[in-house]
Amino acid sequence: MPESTFLDSTELVLNMGPQHPSTHGVLRVILKLDGEKVLGTDCVIGYLHRGVEKIAENRTYAQFNPYVDRMDYVAAISNGLGYCLAIEKLLNVEAPPRAQAVRVILTELNRIASHLVWLGTHALDIGAITPVFYCFREREEALKIFENYCGARLTTHAFRIGGLQYETYDGFEKEVLAFCDMFLPKVDEYEELLTNNRIWAGRLKHVGVLNAEECKEYGVTGPVLRAAGVKWDLRKAQPYSGYQQYDFEIPTCENGDTYDRYTVRIEEMRQSARIMRQAVEKLAAGPIMAKVPKVIKPPVGEVYVSIEAPKGELGYYVVSDGTTQPYRVRVRPPSFVNLQALGRMVAGGLVADVVAIIGTLDIVLGEVDR
Amino acid sequence: MANLLRKIFLADLFQGLWVTFRNQNPKYIYTEQYPAERPKVAERYRGAPRLNINPDNDETLCISCNLCAVACPENLIVVGWERNEQTKRKDLTTFTYDTSRCMFCGLCEDACPVDALELTQDFEMASYTRDGQIWDREMLEHGPAPKAYRS
Q1: What fold characterizes domain A52-334?
Q2: Mean pLDDT across the stretch A182-209?
Q3: How far is CA A39 from CA A158, A347, B124, in A?
């Protein structure tokens, strides 16, 4: 934060948030302005801190599972997958193939749902009101599949350590395929609305540029990194849950501006639908739960497992002291790390761009603060 | 040249307007008229808890094993029992379930060995008081009775 100068009338310190519709939660951004120009920013976080990592130390491994859904609540299933994979690695078990395929289907469906929330709210921030209704309409279909599968729409608690608690319901495969068929034309519809629109392009192109070098310096991952031209996706780089069997591409762009991040995420939704189709074909009968003891007592040790969540690399570092409760759980949330780049992306821009840049980072404050 | 013409004639804007126009069709209406039209929740929906009773003899299915209370991450279930001297079994006396702290994760339902505790499809659990959110055995056995509004 640059020093505040109360007597210098040319500079203005403005609080954006914590109660602001465009900060996507309770984020407070202190803007130092010279007219419309942003000279510096300072993020104040912690308004949604619930101490999830500390809660983990007082819960058994299975009991902590529902809490991880409450970090990135628009992509709860990805959070659950990361946690389950971490504990499975600690226990040295692997989920059976059928469980892995169902996990992939639901995680990719969740990626689509998360990107739809992002697209709708981002467009709303820029001033396009229509996309949010269309996005939420399609998201509703995805949430219906979650509800039918595990009984909850948002904080799903869908996976258990070692596999799945619930077998798929009758017509699960058909509904997922129907969703894919329905969804792809809808993505074209969003593109029709936005991609060529002059206001959309004018507000997003060359705004919030973050090149590949800067991305790596800040540790930024996910679509923000791929928009800068780095072909890095953990689903390809360190495949987990059977992702190596599926054929899909990593969409990348070159400029690393807000428009490219939009393009990358739109293409990622198409790729997710492609993965879901393949996973439904691979869905064979079999057990859904590995041999995991009722009382989970992992051996002494520590693991770090990271997955490609919709927002970037989501990592879980779990330390076990051999008891039924974890000694320490540390989460590496993608939103928190990506938020660091905000200052760099905003500097020199205009106030109106701040809203666009916060939107393009796709942060969820539940995950930033934990 | 083509680009210039597209720009002058606002082709990109009309493209977007055409999408919104297409979606005006009344068959795309998604709105649910909630109090009048009740949503159909999924079969596996995790809603209001219920303590099942045996329909044949109106006795509770609960065997007071306390596994649900142990499984609960929020420690919101309290099971009370007393030892029956004749059968040497535990008889359920009280069962308290604090729905104000519940996050409906379903771990208690998974832990129950006799399918006595169940999360049902009831979703209207609002109450005017905090105490009203703490459900006792009678409330759990009979379930909430929300008023069904009609249009």
Answers
A1: Cytochrome-c3 Hydrogenase; chain B (1.10.645)
A2: 88
A3: 45, 6, 50
Distance from CA of B109 to the nearest CA of A (A): 11
| Domains in chain B: boundaries | 49-142
Task: Confirm or reject contact between A182 and chain B (CB < 8 A).
Answer: no
Residue A189 has its nearest CB partner, among B19, B44, B107, at B19
How far apart, in Å, are the Cα atoms of A249 and each of A252, A275, A312, B4, B150?
Answer: 9, 10, 16, 34, 51
User: Which tens digits make up the pLDDT trace of A148-177?
Assistant: 998 888 888 889 898 888 888 888 889 999
Q: What residue segments make up the domains of chain A, in order of their start?
A: 52-334
Q: Does domain B49-142 have CATH number 3.30.750.200?
A: no
What's the gap in Å between the CA of A88 and the closest CA on chain B? 19
User: Which tokens sit at A82?
Assistant: 């990361």
Work out the number of other CB atoms within 10 angstroms of the CB of residue A225: 27
Beta bridge partners of A317: A304, A330
ipTM of the complex: 0.83
User: Mind listing the pLDDT tens digit for each residue in A12-37?
Assistant: 888 887 888 777 778 888 888 887 88
Are B103 and A155 within 8 A, CB to CB? yes
- Report pLDDT for A84: 92
Average pLDDT over residues A79-105: 91
